[in-house]
Each structure stands twice: as C-alpha cells, then as structure tokens.
Amino acid sequence: MAGWEPIGIIYQKEKRQRYEEGFDTHSMPDDVKDLSEEAIHHLLNQFAHLPLRQDFFYQESSELNEILQDANIIIDQEIAPTFDQFYGAMLGRSIGCMLGKPLEVGPYFWESTRENPGWKQVKKWFQGASQYPIRDYVPKHSKAASEGLYVGCETCLKDQIQYVETDDDIRYTLLSLELLETVGPQFSSYDVGKLWHQWLPYQYLCTAETQAYLNFAQRTHHLSPSHTPFTQADQDYVRTHHNPYREWIGAQIRIDGYAYAAAGNPILAARMAYQDASFSHVKNGIYGAMFFAALIASAFVEKNIDVCIHQTLQVIPKTSRLYEYLIRTIAIVRSEPDLETMIEKVWDYLLDFDPAHTMNNACICVASILFGNGDFNASVSTAVLFGLDTDCNGATVGSFMGALLGESGIHEHWKKPLNDTIYASLPNYHPASIKAVSQRYYDVYLKIKQE
C-alpha cells in the first residue's frame, strides 16, 4: 500500500533512490503514467534485483556493528553535564524549530533550484522587512511579498509567538522521552513502531515515517502483544517496502532525545539513534541520525566544536556518501570566512538530492555549527538562512548549541516569546513545560548513567 504519495510517484522516486544507492536502473522505464497499479507494483518489485553499477565505489551497510566497527570516541568522562545544558538543548531545539517553521514552504524548500536557490529567497524575505541579517524570528510582513514570496505558520511569526507550535521536530523528541522512561535505553525498533501506533495519528507522519507506519501495521497485525517475533525480514520490509524516502531526513530529526539521555556518551547515543532510525531508514538515513545523536551528546562535555565534529564523524562509515559530503562541507567552511560565499559554495551540491534528504540537510547543519563558531544566534540563523528543511535544521543546530552553551547562554529575546510552553498535540504534552521536559530528560540521563 502506498502512503505518502501515489504509487506512480513512489515508482519515480524509487528509481532515483536505487540509482543513488548505486544500482544500475537503466533497464527500468521512466514513464509509468499509462500503466496499471498492478503493473507498477510489479516494476517496483524488480528494483530489488538490479545489479550495482561498476562506477559505484561506496560501501554502505545498514547493520550497527559494521557501522560502528571503527568508532573510538574519546570523551572526558569526569565532566558532569548540568541541568542548565539539558534545558538549553530542549529550548534551543524549540527556538530553532520555531524560527524555521514559517519558511518550511515552497519558495525556500521544495521549489528551490540552482538558478533560484532557497537561501536567496530567505534573504529576500528578511531584507524586505529590514531585518537582515537574521537575528530574530520571521517577520510577518515583507516587501518581498510583492515578488510572490510568502511565509507560513502565523503562530510562529515574530511578535505573534506565544508558545512552541506543534511540529514533528518536537513531537519525536517527546516520544523519545516516553520510550526511554517506559522501556529504557535497550528499546528495539519494534518498540518504536508500537509507540508510534499508540501515540501518533497517521496524519502527523511524513514520507519515510508514513510508509514505515503502514508497513509496520501490515507486518505485525497478526502478532500477539505478549509474543512479538519481529524478525530481520519484518524489519527490512517495514523500512524499505514502497519507501523511497528511506535516506531522507526523517530519522535525523527524531534522535535528539537519545543524545540528551546519553549526554557525554556519544557511542551510546549513536546506538540508541540506530535503534530508532533503522525502523524506517537505511544506510545514510541511519548515519545522519547516528551522527547528530553522537554530536549533540558530545556537546554536553566537549566545548571545542572542531573536536566534537571530528570525533563523532567516526560513527559514519568513511566509505559512505554522507561522510564524503560532510568532509567536503567542512573544508569549505574552514576556508571561506564570508557567510554568503560559504553558503553559495555549499549550495553548489545541495540539490544533488531531494530537498528533504539526509545528505544535504546534514551538510547545512554541520556548516552552520562550524560557521557559527560557538555563537547561538549565528549558528541557528545560518541554518535557517540556508533554506531547504529550515525548521528541521534550525532545531538540530539549536539543540546542539543549547547543549553546548546551556539555557544561560541563549539570549532572552529567543526564549521569552515561547513562555516555557509546548503545544505538541500529544497526550500529556498539550501543553507541556519546556523546563519540565528538560528535567525529565535530566532524570533519565542520571538513571542511565547510574545503571
């Protein structure tokens, strides 16, 4: 069953996905609009039997032990994270999400082209409101509206924000808290699927999560709650069947909570992120989740950003595409001191992938963290200025910077409009206190560390 998009579009995206994974797709037709649904299903099944191209030199596993086989992250275990950092991480995630959410629309995201990149549209909107460079939330009015630009999410705009608006970037962080409190750090991918079906209405899901949600229901409806033989074949079906989004950004935005729970222990954070990400994603979709979980966990104890990034790159296979793209991005940021020139150079390859892919949005986050050089404002605003998945990237960068600097290191003009309140459209979290959620994460961290 197709979920997020019609079966014909899923076919087109599956062909692109298979090519990106290194398979020879030239024998598969481009146009299937005149074919029956049954014929398209037949073609989709054939993708599993395509050979690898001879020019594809990457080696990318979706298995945890193979991904982490070379990881040896050294972190000072004597440094104790403070509650201020947990509060900062959760607050930073909320701020970055709310800053980017009004721009998660066509001109800055899906409609981006090399000739008309999303970052230039973001710049136009803020310039048109005489508020560029970005130093505050998105203004409601801009002269750029006369050029056809617009913004979304009225309740997230400057001077109108009163709380953290419901958003998947926030909901998944809260679901991770529920999972860790009820199951613990040894949760499985099957536990992730059960939690989603208990807590998330279908309409709250997007892309890979939509398809995995459907596939999980189809694969497990016959299982007894007390006896759940969820096999490797079941897991592979859930994360790949009719799921061409399996290397997109969805897993990467779900994992901050594991970084909080494993503060100062990036390998544990990466392992938990793997268990969550592998429910719906493969390969680079998993690597992005593991990398940012490890990176944010590192920020609780390591204050040198270069060291954080260098160390946590170890959780990404050096033979993967994501590793190559991140290394390229790091080199650009380190050699280019001008913000817009740096963005222009990184944008040169961002549209190699779908605008909601892990690869390009991970590059944006790393570029923004490095370029910001320890400044919360500069880092989060750069992530949003880049365009593409603005709320996701703003949230990820805000989470890292909040863990690094703590709540006390975030300027009041970002914090005050949120009124310490989340409306997440989830049971028990509508509303919820950001500070109270942070305290619960701190308690989970202390429990895991003691155990």
Structure overview:
- 53% of the residues are buried.
- Strands 1-2 form a two-stranded antiparallel ribbon.
- The chain has helices spanning 7-20, 37-46, 64-67, 83-100, 118-128, 168-182, 189-199, 207-220, 232-240, 256-261, 266-277, 283-299, 305-312, 321-335, 339-350, 358-372, 376-385, 390-405, 412-415, 434-450; strands at 421-422, 432-433.
- Helix 4 (83-100) runs antiparallel to helix 18, helix 8 packs antiparallel against helix 9 (232-240) and helix 12 (283-299) packs antiparallel against helix 13 (305-312).
- 53% of the residues lie in helices and 1% in strands.
- It has 451 residues and is mainly α.
- The chain folds into 2 domains: 7-49, no CATH class; 78-103 and 164-450, ADP-ribosylglycohydrolase fold (Orthogonal Bundle), CATH 1.10.4080.
- It contains 20 helices and 2 strands.
Mind telling me the CATH superfamily name of the largest domain? Answer: ADP-ribosylation/Crystallin J1
User: So what's the CATH class of the largest domain?
Assistant: Mainly Alpha
**What's the helical proportion of residues?**
40-55%
**Total of DSSP H or I helical runs spanning 4+ residues:** 20
- Secondary-structure element string: HHHHHHHHHHHHHHHHHHHEEH
Number of DSSP-assigned strands: 2
Radius of gyration: 21 Å
Distance between the termini: 42 Å
Instruction: Please identify the structural class as seen in this structure.
Output: mainly alpha
Number of domains: 2
